[in-house]
Amino acid sequence: MKKINRNILLGIAAVSMVFTSCFKDKNSPGFEYMPDMYYSPAYKPGEKNPNFADGKTNQDPVPGTIAHSFDRSKMINFIPYPYSNAPSGRDSAIVFLKNPLEPTEYNLSEGKRLYEVYCIACHGKEGQGDGSVVKVLLAKENYGLQPPAYNSDQLKNITEGQIFHAMQYGKGNMGPYASQLSAYERWQIVFYVQELQKK
After folding, report:
1. 159 backbone φψ class: left, alpha, beta (φ>0; ψ -120 to 50)
2. Boundaries of every domain in the chain
3. Residues 187, 188, 189, 194: is their CA dihedral positive or negative?
4. Is the pLDDT of residue 30 over 70?
5. Reduced DSSP (H G I as helix, E B as strand, rest coil) percent helix, strand, coil of the chain, to 5
6. Residue 119 and residue 189 in contact, taking contact as beta carbons nearer than 8 Å
7. pTM for this entry
């Protein structure tokens, strides 16, 4: 008798669970088991935090320090760019900014590969300002957007710092490449552009 009563009660409970789940508000999440797993008590970035004296969750780095890695390529990418996008910043970059990479065969070949991905469309294979995009513009007699050749009087003597600065902020009709290429990759392209200046 007890076994039958227990089975009946379990059956009623199961049926009631099915019916209550079917008729509930569809937007309701229902009962939550261990809700703290969904709503983490951890502080979020930018949130006020009473555990620190300044009341911030995001703590400032130690003064005078920057994030870096012992991997040289990552160190170059982490170093803040010190020159502004103003004539004075450009003039300083021309004089003081030097390529931190070694002029190895690998860096030159990687610079060529990246150039052929990002630069060739406008500057052309040999850096003559005759890329596929420019050819379309010239066919429409739009001569104002053609970049000068790297070995022209205008560009053959520009410095490595000036080339990098142009990729950092853009120059004329060329947009900036700082968001597409790491600093390390841009310096590799500088090596290849310098080769094109000599041709």
Report:
1. beta
2. 2-34, 76-198
3. positive
4. no
5. 45, 0, 50
6. yes
7. 0.66
What is the distance between the alpha carbons of residues 121 and 15, in angstroms, rounded to a whole number?
69
Return the CATH fold of 76-198: Cytochrome Bc1 Complex; Chain D, domain 2 (1.10.760)
pLDDT, tens only, 141-157: 776 778 999 999 999 99
- Residue at 24: amino acid letter: K
Give the relative orientation of helices 183-198 and 105-118 as an angle to the nearest 10 degrees: 90
Q: Six-digit token pair at 125? A: 């294979």
The number of C-alpha atoms within 13 Å of 35 and in the hemisphere containing its C-beta is 4
Q: What per-residue confidence (pLDDT) applies to 176?
A: 95
Number of Cβ within a 10 Å radius of residue 92? 16
Q: What is the pLDDT of residues 70-103, one digit of tens each?
A: 777 778 888 889 999 999 999 999 999 999 999 9
Cα 175 to its chain centre, rounded Å, is 15
C-alpha neighbours within 13 Å on the C-beta side of residue 179? 4
pLDDT of residue 61: 83
Q: Any idea how long the chain is?
A: 199
Handedness of CA 111, 103, 89, 134 (dihedral sign): negative
